[in-house]
Structure formats: structure tokens, C-alpha cells
Prior knowledge:
This protein is mainly α. It has one domain (2-252). 55% of the residues lie in helices and 2% in strands. The protein is built from twelve helices and two strands; from the N terminus they run αααααββααααααα. It has a two-stranded antiparallel ribbon with strand order 1-2. The chain is globular. The protein starts with a helix and ends in an 8-residue tail after the last helix.
Amino acid sequence: MEQLKSIFEALYAKYNRREFVSYDPLIFLYDYPDKKDREIVALISSSLAYGRVAQILKSVESVIKPLGMNPHQFIMGASPEFFKKEFSCFKHRFTCSKEITALLLSIKRALKQHGSLEELFCKSIKKSCSMIEAQHSFTKYLNDGKESYLLPTPQKGSACKRLNLFLRWMVRKDEVDPGGWDKIPVSSLIVPLDTHMLKVAQKFDLTLRKHANLKTALEVTDSFKRINPEDPVKYDFAVTRPGILNIKSKDIQ
């Protein structure tokens, strides 16, 4: 484990820098110093983080731009009719205008009832004492009890990569992850498992599983916990950069 930690720390030192964030929807979060605004932008950005990078960035920008620099204040004052009209032509792969409007209205409901998305999630995790159950409760609330590709639940075995990405962004704080949520322990986070992370995990024998589902995500997270118990998702951004950016790195060959 010490050898693996040494390799991952080297990758972290090399790639965990903002200069490598330009092709990641995470870049939008840096413009929002208030965590009540940042968490909204983070949820929108992470939920749409599937498909081609260029399209992801374009779609995220088309949603957050009308919300201005104070999304929390704007959403609280906007009417359902505004959202339906503003995003009537929105389309991002499997996500249509109806779904993005529903998400924004659910965010508004959460803000009115709980004050922030952070408080909503914290109430969910306090009730269950389980990150998986908390994620299910959180997504169930925002999906108004319906199923959604935009915000899937872990209850059916999904790795929920985008939801775990959202949590990484908001709970961790370093040069890349801006943080803001301080009531959830970093140690409770789950690795945002996608094909890039799965390849890294298989390369370093962090899992023997072949599919990027919830069981694999938990197994990979447990492996990282043996390397860094306090911060199991610390290396997520850094170890996946070479694959995402098509960089040949001797550290992961």
C-alpha cells in the first residue's frame, strides 16, 4: 500500500492543479464564492456531466447563464413559468427541457423547505447514518419520487458517478475541489466511478470487478481507504487526468 500511495501522491502533485480543469464542468464552480450559489451550479454541472465534453460545457453554460451570478437568489424569485419558457428548447442527449425544468423547480423547493441543498443532504444522512441511504433520500426528494437519468439513485445499483462527483466537489477542498460543505466528513465520500477510474482501479488491483456499478464503486473506495482512510477520493481527479486528456504517464503504465 505504501508503494501505491507513493504513486498516487506523485500523480496528485503533478495533475491536481487548476490548469488541468479547463475541460471539466468543475470549472464553472470557481465563479461562485458563496456556497449557496456554488452548490446549485455544482448540482447542475455534475448532473449534465455525461456525453462529449464540448457538449457538456455548452449545456451547463446554457442552464447556469440565465441564473446570473447569484443562482440561489434568482431561483428563489423565479416562477415555474419562467423556467418552462427559458428552457423550452433545452436538450442534452437524454435530458430534455421538462427534466431540467423539473430539477430547477426541485432545487427551488429544497431551498424553500430546507434553506440549502447542504441542509437537505445533511438531514438525509443524519436520518440514515449511511451515505448510500442519504444519496437515495436526496435524489428521491429532488426527483419528486420519480426515476430520472439526470439524477439516478444508488438503490438500483448505479455507481451514481455524477452524484458522487457533485459530493466530491462540495465536500473536499484543495486546489481543484472548491468545497463549501463542512458538515459531511470527507472520509464518507464514495469514488465517482467511470470508465477512466475503472481502468486505473483495475490496473492497480484496487478491484477485480469488471463493471462500473455501485458494488465496484464501493470496492474501489474501500481500496483507496486502505491507502488514505481520511480522504478516499483525494486521488480521483489526478489519477484520471492522463486517461481523460490522453496523456501518456509513466506513473500509470
